Amino acid sequence: MEEYVEAAIAAGLREIGFSDHIPMYWLPAEQRDPGIAMRMEELEEYVADVMRLRERYPEIPIRLGIEADYIPGQEEELVRILQPYPWDYVLGSVHFIGEWDFDNPARTARYAEWDISELYAKFFTLEAMAAQSGLFDVLAHVDLIKKFGHRPSHDLSRLYADIAETFARAEVAIELSTAGLRKPVREVYPSPGLLRECCLQGVPLVISSDAHHPSEVAWGFAGAVELARQAGYDRVVRFEGRQRFFEAL
Ligand code: FE
Q1: Most-buried pick from 102, 110, 156, 236 (CB within 10 A)?
Q2: Domains of the chain
Q3: Could you report the per-residue pLDDT of 112-128, keeping only the tens digit for each?
Q4: What distance in Å separates the CA atoms of residue 19 and residue 88, rounded to the nearest whole number?
């Protein structure tokens, strides 16, 4: 974690947020993969680690975040897990359709079982539910379903307009994440068309790199700022104690 903070300082960032994956709270303990997310016993330690970093690096604000899966029907359990800690922000994400972790490179065979248009509709229904749950400050990688390059043949503008409107009504922010450029789809999350719709509807934006290694801190940010501007954004949002603060882009 020290290396991430040092990379942020070296990159000239004005703050850095940690958002490790929440324990896989919706699964029975024996099905939780410790290679994907921390164990429940580690959550307290993770928070303490971020607090210690704040003392060690007073020169850069360090935000306490977490990436939490949205699983329909598990909302109360999520609230219970999040409740004890002083989060600056909670990222919401959809990585599962039923029990299928569709973004797992080992599970791509299942795309063949789907009509891709129906799959997108199903995915965005879950994104809409995540937004409407009110549990999250920011929705992460809001078009993750494209990760391996699966795209419906029909035009997505109606779908994009509807989901952007849902985000706006739910008063949730989204991230522009450069992680997609490092994945088979080779495109930021979200796609330019969806980003433009979100801007039109007034959905606040966070720029992130979803770093899973210190070398990925602020990865591709210059290009991301350019894309945000092209989509119409002139400000971004940051979070402190789950309150929003807007900054000029
Ligand atoms: Fe994620």
Answers
A1: 102
A2: 2-248 (3.20.20.140)
A3: 999 999 999 999 999 99
A4: 10
> Which pLDDT belongs to residue 33?
87
Interval 186-207 mean pLDDT: 98
Distance 16 CA to ligand 1 centre (A): 17
Strand 235-240 and strand 243-248: the pairing is: antiparallel
The answer to whether 165 touches 128, Cβ cutoff 8 Å, is no
Among candidate residues 70, 227, 241, the one with its CA nearest the CA of residue 142: 70
Residue 150, pLDDT score:
97
How many angstroms does the Cα of residue 139 sit away from the middle of ligand 1?
Answer: 10
CA of 168 to the centre of ligand 1 (A): 21
Residues 6+ positions from 66 with CB-CB distance below 8 Å: 19, 20, 21, 22, 82, 85, 87, 90, 91
User: How remote is the CA of residue 204 from the centroid of ligand 1, in Å?
Assistant: 19
**Is the Cα dihedral 27, 28, 34, 35 positive or negative?**
negative
Determine the distance separating the centroid of ligand 1 and the alpha carbon of 240, expressed in angstroms.
21
- Å from CA of 69 to ligand 1 middle: 8
Distance 142 CA to ligand 1 centre (A): 10
Beta bridge partners of 205: 174
List the structure tokens of 153. Answer: 């043949």
What number is the average pLDDT over the span 64-93? 98
Q: The whole model's pTM is what?
A: 0.96
